[in-house]
Amino acid sequence: MNDPRDVSVGIIGLGNIGRYHADRLRNAGVEIVGGMDVLPEARERFERDYGVATYEDHEEVYSIADAIVVTTPNKFHEEYAVGALEADLDVLLEKPLAHSVESAERIAVAERGSEGFCMVGFHNRYLPPIEVLTTERDRGRFGDLTHIDANYVRRRGIPGRGSWFTSREIAGGGALIDIGVHALDLALYMLDFPEIAEVSGVARSEFGTREDYTYLQMWGDDTGHERFDVEDSVSAFIRCADGQTISLEVAWAANRPTDDEFVIRGTDAGARFDRATGETTLYETSPDGSAHFSDTEIQTRERDAHATEQEVFLQAVAAGTPPGQNTVEQALTVQRVIDAIYRSSEEGRSIRFTEQPIVAE
């Protein structure tokens, strides 16, 4: 198979994110051969809107597809990703890897024993400014990267109180594992996934449990605070073995301005990237001529990062070769850092990364 458009795709999980993927696959001319969801109404709506057969049993989708896109709630990632990998299918799995580090480890084990591969949906890596910044990193323009401020803060943005997003059992956590995972992944990706030494963090739940929680809009329905047992903000600090550091600030809700900014510091140059606006600036200094600062604004074309991620995935499926990016091993590192942040908050101390158990081999 040489043409990515010849890849037949099945989608597991037919909610909003599944439909988001379906729209882009259809726009790319890729055949969606089946969908699966446990909810009859989700199946009926998908069949009606996309003209695609749907099933209650995921095995039926596995039997007719070349590749699988998994977009279920976090708790069910393992079941469907492992099942597809055991069928030697290629998998595009939405972030995070899983709802727990133990579950994430089991997905990694399944991939090692499969003829298929698993690519994890950290689509922000395909934003053009990030591609520019990583190219400049590889050219050595930054010198040695030393620190990244990674922020993903909403003034009000809990994604539906009472939904699976606010259930620790199903999601595995709150703001950190939902949106903070993007900020953390981008920071580690920019640093080229260095060895982690120590993690310290505090998780807070200050808004989601309040009866008087005030917001202007909500991504899902607000069914109340009774089913809200996760954090709505996290502050964390990650120290790497070679001295690099990451400061992570994440919130679904906070009494402060929204912030989606990454600030990168290196010995020769630095950068600022605003994920919300795409604004990107390089910061340099030079003694040449006369001592001066030089700020370079980077302008890029707009591009759908999800669609680009799908393109990379489908090209890898068609070629029969794992893509070498957005790997399970990288996603497993992200998951272990998330787990260490939660443990640090619960135990009130820093967590040495050597304390992180490898629960599956």
Could you characterize the architecture of this molecule?
The chain is of the alpha/beta class and 361 residues long. The protein folds into two domains: 4-123 and 306-324, NAD(P)-binding Rossmann-like Domain (Rossmann fold); 128-301, Dihydrodipicolinate Reductase, domain 2 (2-Layer Sandwich), CATH 3.30.360.10. It has helices spanning 16-27, 40-50, 58-62, 77-86, 101-112, 128-139, 168-171, 175-190, 305-319, 328-347, and strands at residues 8-12, 31-36, 54-55, 67-70, 90-94, 118-121, 145-153, 196-204, 233-240, 245-251, 261-266, 269-274, 280-286, 292-298, 351-352. Strands 14-13-12-11-7-10-9-8-15 form a nine-stranded mixed sheet. Strands 3-2-1-4-5-6 form a six-stranded parallel sheet, sandwiched between helices. The longest helix has 20 residues, at 328-347. It is globular and about 65 Å long.
* Intertermini distance: 33 Å
Quaternary state of this entry equals single chain
How many DSSP E strands? 15
The main β sheet shows up as: 9 strands, mixed
Strand content: 15-25%
Strands of the widest sheet, in order across it, are: 14-13-12-11-7-10-9-8-15
Number of helices: 10
CATH topology of the largest domain: Dihydrodipicolinate Reductase, domain 2
Structural domain tally: 2
List the helices and strands and how they pair.
Blueprint: E1 8-12, H1 16-27, E2 31-36, H2 40-50, E3 54-55, H3 58-62, E4 67-70, H4 77-86, E5 90-94, H5 101-112, E6 118-121, H6 128-139, E7 145-153, H7 168-171, H8 175-190, E8 196-204, E9 233-240, E10 245-251, E11 261-266, E12 269-274, E13 280-286, E14 292-298, H9 305-319, H10 328-347, E15 351-352
Parallel strand pairs: 1-2, 1-4, 2-3, 4-5, 5-6, 7-10
Antiparallel strand pairs: 7-11, 8-9, 8-15, 9-10, 11-12, 12-13, 13-14
